[in-house]
Prior knowledge:
The chain is mostly beta strands. It has one domain. Helices cover 7% and strands 51% of the residues. The strands form two sheets. Strands 2-5-4-3 form a four-stranded antiparallel sheet, with no helix packed on it. Strands 1-6 form a two-stranded antiparallel ribbon. The longest helix is centred in the N-terminal third of the chain and has 6 residues, at 2-7. The two termini are 15 Å apart. Residues 1-5 have low confidence and may be disordered.
Amino acid sequence: MRDIYRKKTPDKWRNIEFNGLSITLTLIGINKLNLQGERVGFVCSPVIERIGNEIIFSIDNGDRFHLSCVAEVIVIDSIEPYLDQRWK
């Protein structure tokens, strides 16, 4: 993944040191929410799907963390570079 975002880095991020991305999402019209787990701060690949008129957003980290949300609308509020000191 590192090579992908280095090749397509926005000009305004060129002088910023980062090793991850911080993404802020707003989910509107939440119809179902399931959150189980105790650990945060892990690498994951969220899945966003549209089925009919609903958006399904899910994150799964085995049996340690699970989040699923069914909503009517999902809005990407921001995508920002982030320097995670644990991975530096």
